[in-house]
Design goal:
The complex is a heterodimer of chains A (138) and B (782). Chain A has 138 residues and is mostly helical. Chain A has six helices and two strands; from the N terminus they run αααααββα. The model of chain A has no long low-confidence stretch (mean pLDDT 88). Chain B contains 34 helices and two strands. Chain B has a domain of 239 residues.
Chain lengths: 138, 782
């Protein structure tokens, strides 16, 4: 699929899609979205980039092997349960911290958010690993 | 006690390192652990004698009643002393026996792990903990029997031992669980207080059979005995330890432990008595046929175990006392004889009794150790074996007609064992020098020290029997009977009926010894005439099992995706339709309730139907896939219209990606581009598809008509924002309320990813993809 149009537009489109995927990931707690959907969007961005510019370009851009991203994601999601031990609540209970930003506002950091980011990594990694390997042979 | 059990496992980790620094002499150092465990238990001796038991408890899974609890009473103290005491000398002799072996460090590690597991079995008080350590002994003995893993015979023997004892272990676990659930307690100490209540349970017989399955397989009772002689493939120190005093005695230990709980019923006496007696007789009979020293000993071990099981079956204070004494004596003399057999093998290069001879003057210390062990095995005064035999004869004499039959069995069995014991000890030693591969001379101290000390222990126990009888033996008998025993033992009890029977046994044994060659040929002829044994049966069973598995695989897993899909969808259709017919759970269809769709809803439906139509008529596979995508997007739109934005969102993405992935897969598979659908294949596919489709529709309609339990939905709606600070309920459920489920799911996603990757890379016939794979590897390293 070496069309000039696709090759020209793919990097920009991929960047936009990944940005959108992050947006979907982060807003997920209150509006439609979340780690799973976000991850799917990012994965299709990777697939698109791979089709347009070749697998090697994606692998270079990713830097890490996609499977490592997956493993990291599972680890991150599991690790988000560790604070439960400190607070002596059941494993993976949601725990929230308010982090002051200095200007009187607060940033709500929470373990479910860390968990959701882990899910995002898992989905991106696993699907990218599959699509890239499939694309590679052509 | 926890430390005593766990230290073996911990030291096992370091054993290979210690071996690397010290070489074979590591045996001396590593023997310090069992020696100190022995001393530790010896220090508890008086405490156990006065208090009857020492108890320790560590919580493990308290919600299920599973604890790491240890219970030290007379019988477990005796076992612990035997295990650690004999273990000490086994570690030393392993040093000498396997001197120069590449994997000697590993061997030490396995041995230590086994010893720790065995200590766990006899000390654990919780049924589940017993099972845990029990299985650990199976696993470690698998490693030990298969130690020479390059030899096929060793691998087969290891596998066989694992399968047989593992099967028994699972049976035992079943029995334990039924028992524990029935009485609501898994602690042995507390179950023992129940008394006859357990024997009146409806499931008593089931529990009994399952527990006996565990004990019989472990203790090599007929027809599960065949793994034991095959296990002689293991290095001799293994046999001396596992197959004399420990592993095989675990079953006997279990029976002794279960005696106050399950014992003393008609079922108990009949099953144990019959199997024990038969094992005793067949064991001695097969033993006399053997010419290999170790196999002779293995079959007599089987016979001795039969004798023990028989005595426990008879029950009552006298028989239990006989069993405890015999167990003690047997552990000492059999451990010694196995060590002797190993020493002879090591020095003379053969274990064939027909080739060995005249080693008496070359190996005087080994000869002495062998002789003293054989005297105990033959039950000759003043060794402890003599007292054991007197005691069991006494008990069997003072019973009923049933025990008199068993008495006859015991006399015949003992006579045979007398003959075989002396054959093992004397035949290689006496006579003229045999035709042996190596010029034998006295073995190094590491090899004979164990046999010598065990033999002397047997002698000392004989002289010190009055003391032992009032302490250890008394305490052991009391704890098995769960009441205070009146044990009183003397080396010389005067001339009485047991002594006369004992002399008769020796006489019979001597006659067999004189005619050893003739008896052996007779046994050989009879067994050849029978021809078939459980050992062969084991092979036949596994050959059959493999044949069935291959047949199933050939038919179910033929590598054709279409076949797989067909099976899956036929099953799915059955799963939907069969219950619907059985329960008559069809939805009631009321056409008047149908709502006219709005024009855009109708438009989406039309689009879905068109997509479907395109799938069916498309000429090429690629078109079919893309058309299927149309259907998927239409469904996503429907989700959107009916208020499930998250679902719709996901559906869109999943559809997109599956079209992409399917298209990529298509290009890789190099399939026929056209997608032919006609003939019988199309008809069958159409029937299956229609069955699944209509079934699913009816099911969903039916689901809509049932009363939905809304309590969960209400709960999530109510608390999602309140306690989880999120308004998107779907997401909050995923990452907070049910986060553990999600964690499991993403682990599955990860595994799937890795597996798919492996499948794609897996190229059965490499043509020009080799370079590609190497590139991929470089990519992944980077």
């Amino acid at each position: 699929m070496n069309t000039v149009i696709l090759r020209t537009i793919a990097p920009a489109l991929t960047a936009l899609m990944i940005l959108f995927s992050l947006f979907v990931l982060l807003r997920g707690h209150n509006e439609p979205g979340g780690g799973f959907i976000g991850g799917l969007i990012a994965a299709s961005a990777m697939a698109l980039f791979g089709i347009a510019s070749g697998v090697q370009a994606v692998r270079r851009a990713l830097y890490f092997h996609p499977v490592s991203l997956t493993g990291f994601g599972v680890l991150m999601a599991a690790a988000s349960g560790i604070p439960s031990y400190v607070n002596k609540v059941p494993f993976l209970s949601g725990i929230w911290w308010k982090i002051p930003l200095g200007n009187g506002e607060y940033f709500d950091l929470s373990t479910p958010m860390i968990f959701d980011i882990g899910v995002w990594f898992v989905v991106v990694g696993a699907i990218t690993a599959i699509t890239l390997t499939l694309e590679e042979v052509e | 006690m926890l430390v005593a059990v766990l230290s073996g496992f911990i030291l096992a980790i370091f054993a290979p390192t210690i071996k690397r620094f010290l070489g074979y002499r590591a045996g001396w150092v590593l023997a310090l652990l069992p020696a100190s465990i022995f001393i530790y238990f010896l220090s508890l001796y008086d405490q156990v004698m006065t208090q009857r038991a020492v108890f320790e408890l560590y919580e493990w899974v308290p919600t299920l009643g599973i604890n790491l609890s240890f219970y030290l009473d007379g019988i477990s103290l005796m076992f612990a002393l035997l295990i650690s005491g004999i273990g000490t000398f086994i570690m030393i002799s392993s040093g000498g026996y396997l001197k120069g072996h590449v994997n000697q460090g590993r061997f030490f590690a396995f041995m230590l792990m086994f010893m720790a597991s065995m200590l766990g079995v006899v000390l654990a008080s919780n049924l589940i903990a017993i099972f845990f350590f029990w299985e650990m002994t199976s696993v470690t003995s698998f490693l030990l029997i298969g130690f020479d893993h390059l030899r096929k015979a060793a691998r087969r023997a290891a596998f066989q031992a694992l399968v047989v004892t593992g099967l028994g272990g699972l049976g035992m676990l079943g029995g334990f669980i039924i028992l524990g659930v029935s009485v609501g307690n898994f602690e042995l100490v507390e179950i023992m207080q129940f008394g006859t209540e357990i024997k009146d349970l409806d499931l008593y017989f089931v529990i009994l059979v399952l527990v006996l399955l565990g004990a019989f397989t472990k203790s090599a009772q007929f027809p599960f005995h065949f793994w034991l002689p095959n296990a002689m493939e293991a290095p001799t120190p293994v046999s001396a330890f596992l197959h004399s005093a420990t592993m095989v005695k675990a079953g006997v230990y279990l029976l002794m432990r279960m005696y106050p709980i399950l014992g003393d019923t008609i079922e108990w006496s009949v099953i144990l008595g019959t199997f024990g007696a038969f094992t005793l007789l067949s064991g001695t009979f097969i033993a006399i046929r053997q010419t290999d020293l170790k196999r002779m000993l293995a079959y007599t071990t089987m016979a001795s175990l039969g004798l023990l099981v028989m005595l426990i079956g008879v029950g009552g204070e006298g028989a239990i006392e006989g069993a405890v004494l015999y167990l003690f004596a047997h552990s000492l003399f059999k451990g010694g004889l196995f060590t002797v057999a190993g020493t002879i093998d090591h020095e003379a290069g053969t274990r064939d009794i027909t080739k060995l001879g005249g080693l008496r003057s070359k190996m005087p210390i080994t000869f002495f150790a062998a002789l003293i062990a054989a005297l105990s095995m033959g039950g000759i005064i003043p060794l402890v074996g003599f007292i054991a035999k007197e005691s069991m004869y006494h008990a069997l004499l003072h019973g009923n007609n049933y025990t008199l039959i068993l008495l006859a069995v015991a006399i015949i069995g003992n006579a045979f064992m007398f003959a075989i014991g002396f054959a093992v000890a004397l035949k290689p030693m006496l006579g003229k020098l045999g035709d042996m591969p190596k010029a034998a001379h006295e073995a190094p101290i590491m090899l004979w020290i164990g046999a010598l000390v065990l033999g002397i222990c047997g002698l000392a126990a004989g002289f010190g029997i009055t003391y032992l009888g009032s302490t250890l033996i008394h305490s052991a008998v009391s704890s098995i009977n769960n009441e205070n025993a009146s044990t009183e033992l003397h080396l010389w009890a005067g001339i009485n009926m047991p002594l006369i029977l004992s002399l008769f046994t020796m006489g019979l044994g001597a006659i067999i010894y004189m005619n050893y060659h003739r008896v052996r040929i007779f046994a050989d002829d009879v067994l050849n005439w029978i021809g078939w044994g459980p050992d062969k049966g084991f092979d036949q069973f596994f050959a059959g099992l493999l044949a069935i598995a291959q047949w199933v695989t050939r038919n179910m897993q033929n590598g054709d995706l279409k076949t797989y899909m067909r099976y899956i969808f036929i099953m799915l259709a059955l799963v939907i339709w069969v219950p619907m017919f059985i329960y008559g759970a069809f939805p009631s269809i009321d056409l008047t309730k149908l709502v006219t769709p709005t024009f855009y809803e109708a438009g989406i439906l039309l689009m879905a139907v068109l997509g479907l139509y395109a799938v069916l008529v498309a000429k090429s596979r690629l078109t079919s896939i893309v058309s299927l995508g149309i259907l998927g997007f239409s469904v996503a739109l429907l989700f959107m219209l009916f208020g499930a934005p998250d679902l719709s969102f996901t559906q869109f993405m999943v559809e997109t990606l599956s079209v992409v992935i399917l298209a990529l897969v298509m290009t890789r598979l190099k399939l026929d581009k056209s997608d032919r659908k006609y003939g019988l294949y199309a008809i069958i596919s159409a029937i299956i598809a229609t069955a699944v489709g209509t079934g699913m529709t009816l099911l969903l309609l039916r689901v809509m008509q049932t009363e939905l339990d809304m309590s969960l939905s209400n709960y999530f709606t109510k608390y999602s924002a309140a306690i989880a600070h999120g308004h998107n309920i779907v997401n909050v459920i995923l990452v907070d309320f049910r986060a553990l489920d999600t964690l499991g799911e993403i682990s599955v996603v990860m595994t799937t990813g890795i597996v798919v990757l492996a499948l794609i890379r897996l190229k059965p016939k490499v043509d020009n993809n080799k370079d590609q794979n190497e590139d991929n590897l470089k990519g992944s390293v980077k």
